[in-house]
Amino acid sequence: MLARRYLHHLNRVVTPLGDSMQRVASCFTEALSARLAATLTTTSTTSSSSAATSIKPFNPFPPNSLEILKIYQIVYQACPYIKFAHFTANQAIFEAFESEDRVHVIDLDIHQGYQWPAFMQALSARPGGAPFLRITGVGPSIEAVEETGRCLTELAHSLHVPFEFHAVGEQLEDLKPHMFNRRVGEALAVNSVSRLHRVPSNCLGNLLTMIRDQAPNIFTLVEQEASHNGPYFLGRFLEALHYYSAIFDSLDATFPAESAQRAKVEQYIFAPEIRNIVASEGAERTVRHERLEKWRKVMEGKGFRGVPLSANAVTQSKILLGLYSCDGYRLTEDKGCLLLGWQDRPIIAASAWRC
């Protein structure tokens, strides 16, 4: 009852269209309301059921996938986080493929393939011409992955890059070695951007072992720099509050306060993440971000060793940040890895590995 009273008060003072703190507080208030509703539902009492139904339902996604794609495009253009992930990983892969004639990239979460046009352009400009490039794209929907493959095939043709695409429609925990379609004589890179944290912990070890057994030249790993998978709710909540407050602050410096685009980004991309971290438990909690330090232990425990990101990767990241009018973004190095943050808060970490 006390929690309901506090949440009722919060709902009166926060707004998703206010200042940065009000906006992030609105998301966390909604998430706490959802957690309380779930708690009340599990008690299976009549009064609890009526209390739970009084919480307003929340739809985490816009009505259609095209709208979702447009919102991701807004984030991609307005903030450097995703571009930093793609450019840094691409540079490490490009350097690992130097002088190779046949190269193969396995993208563990290809989405619309935004990462690869710039990579293809870099290959096409290589002295002596582009190598033969094969991309294996992995995603839960085979139809969506195949559509991405068609777009990339058209682009490769226009850039005169010899190209082949292989689509895999599976969750990562269901992947089998034969699905990678490994070929003799190909240099291999495995790429994972903001994906491994969603793999169930009891499946992650097997997945990494399977990847290691493919003997990749490079394994690029980019993850959110946050600890949202701790065993205690309060610690997880406070960590998430600080982390997303920094992200919302960066959005505040990027968009006008009344921006409809900003509201969509916050409500349809970051609010569902917050809700999952705060309101969900067990198998339903899929947003399980870990810090770079934890990923180091996981990777080294599976036989990988770190590959320091090059001076070119650092320079490229600095040039990327120079394209944005905000001066709050910070680039730091940590034992050969690169971290991009807002003010003094790291947001995303990029690392590279090999066997």
UniProtKB/TrEMBL annotation:
Recorded GO CC terms: nucleus
The entry's keywords: Nucleus, Transcription, Transcription regulation
The UniProt record lists the keyword Transmembrane helix: no
Regions crossing the membrane: none
Region (VHIID): 72-137
Cellular localization per UniProt: Nucleus
PROSITE patterns: GRAS
Main location: nucleus
Keyword Chaperone among UniProt keywords: no
Region (SAW): 279-354
Motif (VHIID): 103-107
Family recorded in the similarity comment: Belongs to the GRAS family.
Protein's name in the database: DELLA protein
